Amino acid sequence: PEQIRAVFKKYGKGGIWGVIHVAAYKAVGESTEIPVTYYHNNVSATIFLLQVMDDFDCTRFVYSSSATVYGTPPKVPIPESTRLQADSPYGKSKVMAETIIDDLTHGTPLLYALITIADEKEYSPTHEMASYLLAILQNAFIAPRAHHPSGLIGEDPLGRPGNLLPLLAQMAVGRVKDPVLKVFGNDYPTPDGTCVRDYLHVLDLAEGHLLALDALAPESKLFDNCPTEARYKAYNLGRGQGSSVLQIVEAMRKATGFDYKTEIVGRRRGDVPDLTADPTLAEKELGFKAKQDLETACRDLWNWQTKNPKGYDTESK
Fold first, then answer.
1. Judging by DSSP bridges, how do beta strands 243-244 and 196-197 pair with one another?
2. Which residues are catalytic?
3. Could you say which of 33, 45, 148, 248 has the lowest number of CB atoms within 10 Å?
4. Which candidate, 41, 61, 35, places its Cα nearest to that of 50?
5. Domains of the chain by start residue, with CATH
6. What residues does the NAD-dependent epimerase/dehydratase domain cover (predicted)?
C-alpha cells in the first residue's frame, strides 16, 4: 500500500490526472479455495487506492471488472443492464468493488466523510475532499489474452496457471507435465456442453481502457445522459462472440501443433455456462471495436511461450 501512496506523493496533489485499475487475483477456481485472500486483495486494495486518490485530489477512475459479476446471466450476449449476481468469490469481490465505486459516485459517505457530486466546472483542487469521482466500470470480459504480438510481453502466472489458455500453452511447451487437460463439465446448456467465454486480445482490452480514460476528459459528453448526478457508467468490452473450452483446445492445437488429450470431469464450483459480451454500448459511446480474432490471440500466445518457455525466469533459460 505504501508504494501506491509513494507514487502519488511523487507527483503531489492534483498531479495524477486519472487511474486505470487492472490489478487483481483472477482465477475462479482458486478463489473458491482461498476466498478470504481474494476479498482482501481485490476489495481491500481497491478501497485503499480510492482513499489515496481522494487524499491527492485524483478524481478520474477506470476500473477493470469481470463478466463474472453477472453470475449466470438471463440473457446472452450480456447487456450492461444485467443485474450483478456473481457465483464465485472472485466474481463477488468484483461486485463488491463495483458497489463501493457506485456508492462513491452517488455521494454515499461510505469511505469518506463527504463525497459530493458536481459538474467538473465546479471542482476545485483546493477542496479538502474531492467534489466528485468519475468512474467507468470496464466489464473486461472473463478471458483477456495478455500476450503482445512481439513475443516480448506475455502472461506468466505464478505457479500453475488458473486460466485455460496459459495452461494450454505451458502444457504444449512442456512446462506443465499433465498428460491430459481436465475439462470441468460437458453438460452445460452450450453447443458442445462445455463453458463458453468471450476471449479478448490484450491489445483490444488495452485500447478499450484507454478509450475509457479519454472519455473522462473535461470536454467529454459521455455523462450527459446519466439518470442521476453520479458520474458512473459500465461498459462491456468483448468481441460479442463466445468460444467453448473445447473450441479453445482446438484453436490452440492448431496454433501449437501439440496433441492435447482431454478428460471430462465434474463441474467446478463457481463456473457458469456462458459469459459472452454484448459490446454494443461500448462501440456506440466509446468507439470501441475488437480487432483481433481468436486465431491471432492463440498465435500471439504461442509466440510468447516459445520465446519464453520459462516465462520471465531468465536465469533458468
1. antiparallel
2. 90
3. 33
4. 61
5. 2-143+203-237 (3.40.50.720), 151-198+241-274+292-311 (3.90.25.10)
6. 16-216
